[in-house]
Amino acid sequence: MPLRKITTGFLEFQRGTFQSKRSFFEKLAVKQQPKVMMVACSDSRVDPAILTNAEAGDLFMVRNVANLVPPCALDVGRHGTSAALEFAVVYLEVEHIIVLGHSGCGGIKALLTGDPALDREHTFIHHWMQITDEARRRTLLVARQQPIEVQLRILTQEAIKTSLANLLSFPWISERVEDGRLRIHGWRFDLEDGNMYVYVPERDAFEPLDLELATLMQGS
């Protein structure tokens, strides 16, 4: 039973991890001070905390379909991702925002293949994925003749780049990036080879994360 596994897991956490780190969790109960925010996909296979061996309090997270960041829109819409960004940047003063994509994303595949799940009858999904429609056009422009696997990888990366550009449309993000208080990053996790690929703007390329690149990210 799926729920039995989840409830048993919590009870094990409560008896083991929580009790053994009681003072740590008591401090967290008073205040959170994460330095990193992640915009990740809702996909059950890609948990940012597991992928990074993060502890409670390390990551401020928002997860949505295809890990997209919408452009800044100052209207009466209910913008959940934008609200999370505002809280993390303005109030928590995070120092890094990572847009974390991954291989095998259902939203990306549906966008590329014209899956019926993205038609206008599915209002929320349809409008949400329009955020990255320009990335789809860019992908088809350069890779229309490539195998579907190549197109999906390119579209995943182009969607991450679109989200990075959209981050800069928020004035309180762009001003902090400009003065060095905040850095933004694009990552893509490959479920098959286990590598994390990091976007390097200077080379317009996604490169495998290693210690050298991690050091460069801290100082760039």
Descriptive notes:
By secondary structure, this protein is of the alpha/beta class. It has two domains: about 1-30; about 30-220, Carbonic anhydrase (Beta-carbonic Anhydrase, Chain A), CATH 3.40.1050. The protein contains ten helices and six strands. The protein has helices spanning about 1-20, 20-30, 50, 80-90, 105-115, 125-130, 135-145, 150-165, 170-180, 210-220, and strands at about 35-40, 60-65, 95-100, 185-190, 195-200, 205-210. The protein has a six-stranded mixed sheet, covered by helices on one side. Helix 7 (about 135-145) packs across helix 8.
Topology record:
Elements (H helix, E strand, L loop, with lengths): L1 H19 L1 H9 L5 E6 L6 H5 L6 E6 L15 H12 L4 E7 L3 H8 L9 H7 L3 H11 L4 H20 L3 H9 L3 E7 L6 E5 L4 E4 L2 H9 L1
Parallel strand pairs: 1-2, 1-3, 3-4
Antiparallel strand pairs: 4-5, 5-6
Describe what is shown at a glance.
The protein contains 10 helices and 6 strands, in the order ααβαβαβαααααβββα. The protein is of the alpha/beta class. It folds into 2 domains: 1-31; 32-219, Carbonic anhydrase (Beta-carbonic Anhydrase, Chain A), CATH 3.40.1050.
In total, the number of domains comes to 2
Q: Kindly state the percentage of residues in helix.
A: 40-55%
Shape, per Cα inertia axes:
globular
**Strand portion:** 15-25%
CATH architecture of the largest domain: 3-Layer(aba) Sandwich
Rg over CA atoms, rounded to whole Å, is 19 Å
Give the topology string: H per helix, E per strand: HHEHEHEHHHHHEEEH
> SS-based structural class?
alpha/beta
Number of strands: 6
Question: How many individual helices?
Answer: 10
CATH topology of the largest domain: Beta-carbonic Anhydrase, Chain A
Query: In CATH, what is the homologous superfamily of the largest domain?
Result: Carbonic anhydrase
User: Are there runs of 5+ residues with pLDDT below 50, and where?
Assistant: none
Give the N-terminus to C-terminus distance in angstroms. Answer: 47 Å
